[in-house]
From TrEMBL:
One of its GO terms (biological process) is methylation. This is Class I SAM-dependent methyltransferase. Keywords: Methyltransferase, Transferase. It holds the Pfam family Methyltransf_25.
């Protein structure tokens, strides 16, 4: 499944317009409430990092409305181009999230993005995430529930997802100075996603 994992950036880049259309018009009912909670923990005026930001919509408007400034990172140049067009006053970076070194932020979000990395790469991300957070800053991400890899289909092409076990996520959070505040497994209001909210100690 490594080939499918390696093709994620290209897949989103080829279908950037389609992804953007899907994302903006099929928003789960409960998503905005989670973003609002994350933003409240970060606090108005904070600078937050959105890893796997896609086209920026609909989450960036939520973050901006809460008084946050955004640095968005995505591996797709086409999606970042949409972000720059829509939100020219924010910072946008084309990069592989596994190789970033962007300083410290008052919040960090990986909404439906971490799960595109292979399991071992996901575990290796947590020191990177902790390094990018100031003390007290929130981290929020979505995941699966059992360690493994799956390849589905999206727009006629393979789409890779992977997960650690729930206990593994708990362990890498604790090992990297990230205190878990809440975890909801299979949140029906967010399409069945498992959602994690933690803060940097």
């Amino acid at each position: 499944m490594t080939t499918a994992a390696d093709s994620i950036a290209g897949l989103y880049d080829r279908h950037a317009a389609g992804w953007d259309d899907d994302r903006r018009h099929r928003r789960p009912d409960g998503e905005a409430a989670w973003i609002t909670r994350f933003a409240a923990l970060a606090g108005s005026g904070a600078s937050v990092l959105d890893l796997g930001c896609g086209s920026g919509a609909p989450i960036v408007p939520d973050l901006r409305a809460a008084g946050l400034t955004v640095t968005g990172v995505d591996a797709s140049p086409s999606l970042i181009a949409l972000c720059r067009e829509r939100f020219p006053d924010q910072a946008w970076v084309v990069a592989d999230m596994r190789r970033i070194d962007l300083g410290r932020f008052g919040g960090l979000l990986l909404w439906h993005s971490l799960f595109h990395l292979p399991p071992d790469d996901q575990a290796a991300m947590f020191p990177v995430l902790a390094r990018h957070l100031t003390p007290g800053a929130p981290l929020m991400f979505t995941s699966g529930t059992e360690r493994g890899e799956t390849v589905g289909q999206w727009r006629g092409e393979p789409l890779y997802h992977a997960s650690l076990d729930l206990s593994d996520y708990e362990g890498v959070l604790a090992d990297n100075g990230l205190r878990l505040i809440e975890r909801v497994v299979g949140d029906a209001s967010c399409g069945g996603a498992t959602i994690w909210l933690a803060v940097r100690l």
